[in-house]
């Protein structure tokens, strides 16, 4: 299990019907992102040290250094040339 600061840690309930907990990883104790983690829990706002068990998983978020540049609102990516749609294998003579 590897994490980065800002990832969401989700711990499934130990039994059917038990609520799951989630929190934000706010600090790492190892440079490689391995446990334990400091987690700020969404239900209490408290920060605790956690060694994740088998019911835990990490939701990785796209971090700003890896994100695509933002687009100006109302703009779309460039489209291909307009034209007639054809059937597979049909030569459109374009």
- Distance from N terminus to C terminus (CA atoms, Å) equals 51 Å
Number of helices: 0
Largest sheet: 5 strands, antiparallel
Silhouette: globular
Overview of this protein structure:
With 94 residues, the chain is an all-beta fold. The protein has a domain at 8-61. It is built from no helices and 5 strands. It has strands spanning 8-11, 21-28, 37-41, 47-50, 56-59. It has a 5-stranded antiparallel beta sheet, with no helix packed on it. The radius of gyration is 22 Å and the shape is globular. The protein starts with 7 loop residues before the first strand and ends in a 35-residue tail after the last strand. 6% of the residues are buried.
Could you list some keywords that capture this structure?
single chain; about 90 residues; mainly beta; 5-stranded antiparallel β-sheet; 5 strands; globular; DUF1918
In short:
With 94 residues, the protein is mainly β. The protein has strands at residues 8-11, 21-28, 37-41, 47-50, 56-59. A five-stranded antiparallel sheet has the order 4-3-2-1-5, with no helix packed on it.
Topology:
Layout: E1 8-11, E2 21-28, E3 37-41, E4 47-50, E5 56-59
Antiparallel strand pairs: 1-2, 1-5, 2-3, 3-4
